[in-house]
Amino acid sequence: MTTAPTAPLTSTDDYNAAVEAALSANAAYYTDGTSALDDPSYDALIRQLQDYEDHHPEHIRSDSPVGKVGGGAAPTGDVAHTVPMLSLDNVFDAEGLTKWGASLARRLTGPVHGGYAVEPKLDGAAIAARYRNGRLVQLVGRGDGIHGEDLSHAIGSIVGLPERLSVDTTVEVRGEALLTRAQFEAANEQRREHGSKVFSNARNGTAGTLRGAKSRDYTIETTFFAYGAVTFDGVDILRGETHEAVMAQVDALGIQTTAATEAGLRVYETLAEAHSRVEEINALRAELPFGIDGVVIKANRFDEQQTAGFATRHPHWAIAYKLPASEAQTKLIGVEWNVGRTGVIAPRAVLEPVEVDGSTVRYATLHNPSFIAQSGMMLNDIVMVWKAGDVIPRIEAPVVNLRGADATPIILPDTCPKCGGDIDKSGKRWECANGTGGGCGLLAALTYAVSRDQLDIDGLGVTFLEALVENGAVSDVADLFTLTREQLVAAARSVKRADTLLEQIAAAKEKPLNRVFCALGIVRTGRTLSREIARHFRTMDAIRAADVDALAAVPKLPAANAPKIAAHIAAMGEVIDKLAAAGVNMREPVTEDAATGPLTGQIVVVTGGMREALAKFTNRNAMRELIENAGGTSSGSVSKKTTILVAGANAGSKLAKANELGITVLNEEQFAERVADYLG
Ligand SMILES: NC(=O)c1ccc[n+]([C@@H]2O[C@H](COP(=O)([O-])OP(=O)(O)OC[C@H]3O[C@@H](n4cnc5c(N)ncnc54)[C@H](O)[C@@H]3O)[C@@H](O)[C@H]2O)c1
Ligand SMILES: [Zn+2]
């Protein structure tokens, strides 16, 4: 795989080869961003070079990347920087941080007095934004730290970097331009539409976006976060003795700083506290709307920064605490096609196992067949795998310049890989035309139907269901309700278990319509939509009588999906009749109406583990149902619109945010009291 050797370099030949490898990786990294090495491999290579150069100073090549900003390979323009724009030194663990703290104290001949400012290390491209008399006049890339490229053509496409300041002042603000996750996806969508090569990750996408802004006839948006400011044109407007104070001043000018994020700047007295903040930011990482590759710790007071001084490549007063890489390169060795519960046929990438952010990744989602076609991916391509906010690893695009002779096209299936039936290719997602109600995906559909959020027959595990399907006792969800005691005893091999199951099945007959409907596994519907449909129509008969237009009128139901949903409901007619005949409830209970419930008009967010009075609502869907039954609206994230936060055990960032916004926070007891009539 594309990892660098880890043994020490022992000969000049080895050293020369390693320098060449680093230089070509660098050149790719800073230009079109498709390096042959991932970051950990590159960093390991640089450490090897450093080690060799320490022992053989007589062999050091003048073009060695060690100790240079941008490894000496970043595109350098002709714009002179006001003051050097440097890189950062790295540490990777607590020990490294302690060492850095000790060396800082030595330079200051005593401890740090002004505290440590801690900020996220944003993973994009450094730019300097020059404002003259309140107008954004020039953007400059970092280059070799002394000269940078003019990137002014990107003015107007960078969120957070206004073209006019709130005050007519002259200043140079420095910070990181990046693609947020959403901007990254939008950028790739645009590039696919325009037939351009998609970016394989957000970081290299940023450099490409800024540099390419000149030659594109469409605009790709990026986002800016400031992390510094220097005087420009000799106009000294910066006030305050600390980094923190200047960042507040930048913020007041209308420029976005990291204060706009949950991981924003905070100042701590001790390095130990700063280290805890590193861990906090690491925990927030998955939730942040953009990528970070570390946390930056800086001496907060300028006089202390000045005393500590600079090395050629980096300041002594700041350090980057690198977090484990959230992406890595590996090889796409296969594509699997899985058939899901509603018959969706989804492709999954099989990867050569690779370590990403502390776990081994073997698979990644490929979304749908059109994604494969548009990404231009081929089998045996090298791909960049990354973990986004979600847990499913993703790959975006192949690293085309690493494509080998063994690359072969990815073959899309002609027939359902599971049952051999036809595939419905009319939508973006392919579906087995035989995939619902009966044939393909039956077992998965049944598992879904009996699960806790639907019919809640928890004694029916997959193996049990499999036995029932195999011996012919069950061929659709309705058959579950006519199972005899004998059949259950035979499958369960236990009278006691069979009786428990009979009780659960009897209880399932009384479930509200929304759950019964959901258990049908109708295409393009899930928990939320099933609840909307049941609330809207109130009875199964009304649902069946609804035409496409009537369905499209259901709140939250995308009109484009209504025809498929209507067709599937019609196709399930026989199963629904069987359910009704078995005595399964077909009505949505009219609870206190949304207009009169105790939570009417309230927008409620739940966070943390539910205990005590709400202990049986540990499942978030159960809480949502409770909130909606009581007339409220349930939401997943805290915003200004939120009116109540229910905070349980170990509530974290949502609680902090609610407190910040002055939102009513209730504990389990208080909330339970409020909805006492609905706890059932
Ligand atoms: N894969 C490859 O082939 C390859 C090649 C070259 C470099 N790299 C990677 O690039 C990195 C080295 O690049 P570098 O020297 O540009 O350093 P760097 O990018 O790791 O760190 C310095 C930069 O951090 C940024 N930064 C983000 N948040 C900041 C904040 N709050 N305060 C100050 N600065 C902040 C600034 O842009 C600054 O220039 C390494 O991680 C290396 O692995 C990889
Ligand atoms: Zn099938």
Principal-axes shape call: globular
Mean pLDDT: 89
Number of domains: 5
CATH architecture of the largest domain: 2-Layer Sandwich
What oligomerization state is this entry in? Answer: single chain
Radius of gyration: 30 Å
The bound ligands are:
nicotinamide-adenine-dinucleotide, zinc ion
SS element count, helices: 22
Helix content: 25-40%
Taking the sheet with the most strands, its summary is: 7 strands, antiparallel
Number of strands: 25
Catalytic activity: NAD(+) + (deoxyribonucleotide)n-3'-hydroxyl + 5'-phospho-(deoxyribonucleotide)m = (deoxyribonucleotide)n+m + AMP + beta-nicotinamide D-nucleotide
GO molecular function: ligase activity
Binding site for Zn(2+): 416, 419
Enzyme class: ligase
